[in-house]
Amino acid sequence: MGDVATLPTCSVLALGPHPDDIEIAAAGTLLLLQKAGHQVALVDCTRGEKGSRGTAAERDAEAAAAAKLLGAACRHGLGLPDTGVRADDASTDALVAVLRAVRPVLFFAPHADDVHPDHVAAAQLASRAFFLAGLRHYAPQLGAPHRPRVLLRYPGNRPVPPTLVVDVSAVAAAKAGVVRCYRSQLNPPDRAHLVLGLDVAERADVRDRFWGGSIGVRAGEPFVHEGPLPVGAVAALLG
What we know:
By secondary structure, the chain is α/β, with parallel strands linked by helices.
């Protein structure tokens, strides 16, 4: 958990309940954004210390390696307890401070329809912080008000009908390398603790192939936008 004041301004911020959640769901899209010249910041709610495999130190090292491959400008931890994420005032203020420091235009956060309580709570936390960070008179000591222009939700352990699917075929191999940074989560001898019976690399591959197939490409990442999606240039729909 670093000093929020030292975080760089980035146009993209992605929030994950645990290390590896961002990468499974959105590493391809983040790679594309980074390659297009956008600065990307990553924020983990927890260190994943209550997971069935991997120590907190191992997961810290894995998360740092993944962030490096993603080309992220920074990776910040909120320091919340694994299996104990709450959308309470203290946690909200921690994320508000990050949003105001990083000042992203695009904010990725978990979808609330999930079996993992931390994913549900992180989604609620994102909603509270997203709104409150933009209020001028809310906690001014946390920085100047800022609300991202777009909030995109990524599904976790349950499929959710997406608003859009990003074609990540061109960076599928690079994404696989990022996800495989989480070596402690690969090929466990006992899979009883896995929600879907798949390790992190298998989950990412299966979901990307499924959603890619839904739009006629090799690999795709699904996202949900709440309400009409603002499009400034219709030409963007032409590819």
